[in-house]
Design brief:
The chain is mostly helical. The protein is about 75% helix and about 0% strand. Helix 12 (about 260-270) packs across helix 13 (about 285-300). The protein starts with a helix and ends with a helix.
């Protein structure tokens, strides 16, 4: 029986429960959006809405990579440090070669290399992902700051202005149909991952691994290789995000850029409905989770709250999101 046929046979309460259990990330986003519209009042315009899409794109790209890892039941705490490390080296490549193409390739390749290093330690050597990626987080951030200090600079910056490179400027600051190019790229990547996780054998392996690792191994899934590939994919997406950041802002500050991105990415994944225990959730939810997280920032700003309380509010909302996941699991 098709999903539509099943829905037709359900009673109204059952249908509502089905929608809540499978698409609650949309409802959460709509509630937060309504709060934003209420708080922002007459200042709300189409431009302010499209800014939500823009400001979600870079973190959202990283969150998509994180979601693949979380689906397998693992975690990556190094994405923020990897983001600034990869971005800084990509800028150095650009300044040395004057090539946008080489900069983009170097960002993606370096991101993939960072993911591969984590993946081999976790997948092949069976080291705990929390410890491995925590170590990577400390190492990459430290190395980035050390390199910058040795160069006698305060940040990694593109030598020329973006106006000298219209292709790069248009990518990072242009728009199509009034929506930022970065948002379109984010949505395109999300659509591709939705297809991969729902319609390919690899996607089914991710859910199987996250649901029950031993059963996945007995079913013939190469658990070690799958783990390595997931970390590599996450690293590649971190590289893409770093390139988008360069196209938008032209610089990276090793002390502040990407700071807490690992936590924000995890929060976006959780708000998007993906279970931290692995094996459950939808990639599409990460898009809504990231935009919800971006809206929370804007609500705090619009309310004039002390910026020092920003993360405390986000932490409370994250606890609520986890609580909703537990409630959803019990209701099933």
């Amino acid at each position: 029986m098709t999903e539509q046929g099943k829905l037709q046979k359900r009673s109204v309460p059952e249908t509502l429960r089905h929608v809540w259990q499978n698409y609650n990330f949309i409802l959460v986003f709509l509630v937060i959006l309504l709060v934003f519209l209420y708080v922002n009042g007459s200042a709300t315009t189409w431009t302010s809405i499209t800014n939500i899409f823009l400001h979600s794109a870079i973190l959202g790209t990283i969150a998509l990579g994180m979601s693949l890892i979380v689906l397998t039941g693992d975690i990556d705490l190094s994405v923020g440090s990897s983001f600034v490390f990869v971005g800084g080296l990509a800028i150095l490549v650009f300044n040395a070669t004057d090539s946008i193409l080489l900069m983009g390739i170097s960002a993606v390749v370096l991101g993939g290399a960072c993911g591969l290093a984590n993946g081999l330690l976790v997948g092949k050597l069976h080291m705990p992902p929390f410890i491995v990626t925590l170590a990577s987080m400390l190492i990459l951030r430290s190395v980035s700051q050390y390199m910058m200090n040795e160069m006698g600079e305060t940040r990694y910056s593109v030598d020329a202005t973006l106006s000298s490179y219209p292709a790069l400027f248009d990518l990072g600051n242009g728009s199509v149909l009034t929506i930022s190019n970065l948002a379109w790229i984010f949505w395109l990547i999300a659509a591709l991952l939705v297809y991969v996780t729902t319609s390919t054998k690899f996607g089914k392996r991710l859910y199987a691994l996250g649901s029950n690792e031993k059963a996945a191994g007995f079913a013939g899934i190469n658990v070690e290789l799958t783990r390595v590939l997931v970390f590599v994919l996450c690293g590649l997406l971190v590289g893409v995000a770093a390139f988008l950041k360069i196209a938008k802002d032209t610089s990276f500050d090793p002390a502040t850029s990407g700071r807490n991105f690992e936590l924000y990415a995890i929060a976006a994944v959780v708000i998007g409905g993906i279970s931290m225990s692995g094996g459950r959730g939808k990639i599409a939810g990460v898009v809504f989770g990231t935009m919800s997280f971006t809206l929370i920032d804007k609500i705090i700003t619009a309310m004039g709250m002390n910026a020092l309380l920003n993360d405390s509010v986000k932490g409370l909302i994250l606890l609520v999101a986890v609580g909703l996941q537990m409630f959803k699991k019990r209701s099933k």
